[in-house]
Write a structure and sequence with these properties.
The chain contains 12 helices and 10 strands. By secondary structure, it is of the alpha+beta class. The strands form 2 sheets. It has an 8-stranded mixed β-sheet, with helices on both faces. A two-stranded antiparallel sheet has the order 1-2.
């Protein structure tokens, strides 16, 4: 695919005028006042943008074209991405999966929760808050669940509350090693649906209207940072991502797992 031959700095410089005329036509005098630019600058920019097909000259003034609107939206997404990158640096230091970095603009307004010496569990607190009561819960689990989240999972499993989780084999092993009794309680309950997938990009939860993404230390598996957002576009992205991995996930057969473990024990 051919790259962009134009000057990206020029697109950024053009964006304010294209934004100003996106909602309706403005003449050059109005653009001068709206953008606080000189008459000569207004003339030069409207002429250039019209020639490039980004503005349309109408009897009422200059109006952003479809191509111009596309430029504006690309610039706005770029600006949102930069804001999110700056805001989410502690989390992005742990996560580099393209599934997230290509869509980081969706999280420009997300809340960030970072572990500190005073409160090392701060990244887990959103999970505890939202997983306590819910109507809908889907999650990707890369590392083992923190004990307090596991306790909530046990309560939900015993009460028959429905939820789904896709776990990496490593996460399943960590949970089983942490508490085999807790693991079996959740595994043998009727309501939860559990799956396994070897290549999940990060730990993520979709709990009702909230999306949570967590970053964990590679060596200790301790929580480092998490984000939460109620952005509807982020939620739609997260649901599509979950469905994508569920298509290739394998539903856990605990009877088969038990038989396998007993065979290993006997050997």
């Amino acid at each position: 695919m051919d790259g962009y031959d134009g000057d990206p700095h020029q697109s950024l410089d053009r964006a304010p005028m294209l934004k100003a005329t996106r909602s309706g036509p403005l003449d050059r005098s109005q653009l001068q006042d709206e953008l606080d630019i000189s008459r000569a600058t207004a003339y030069r920019r409207t002429s250039a943008l019209t020639e490039d097909g980004l503005l349309d000259k109408t009897p009422a003034g200059y109006q952003t074209t479809g191509a111009g609107r596309a430029v504006v939206e690309a610039v706005e997404q770029f600006e949102q991405s930069l804001a999110a990158i700056d805001r989410l640096e502690p989390l992005l230091a742990q996560l580099s999966a393209p599934e997230l970095t290509r869509n980081v603009h969706l999280f420009a307004d997300a809340d960030l929760h970072v572990a500190t010496p005073q409160n090392p569990n701060e990244p887990i607190e959103p999970w505890l808050e939202h997983f306590e009561e819910f109507e809908y819960s889907r999650s990707l689990v890369v590392a083992g669940c923190p004990p307090k989240v596991t306790e909530q999972g046990i309560e939900h499993a015993q009460s028959g509350r429905d939820f789904e989780s896709i776990c990496t084999p490593l996460a399943l092993e960590a949970d089983q090693n942490a508490s085999e009794e807790a693991f079996e309680t959740i595994a043998n309950a009727e309501a939860p649906s559990l799956y396994t997938h070897p290549d999940l990009p990060f730990t993520m939860g979709i709990i009702d209207d909230v999306v949570i993404i967590g970053g964990f230390d590679d060596e200790t598996a301790l929580p480092v940072a998490s984000l939460t957002t109620e952005n509807p576009d982020a939620r739609e992205w997260a649901r599509n991502l979950y469905r994508r991995f569920k298509r290739d996930a394998e539903e856990l057969d605990f009877a088969e797992m038990d038989a396998s473990m007993q065979s290993v024990t006997q050997d």
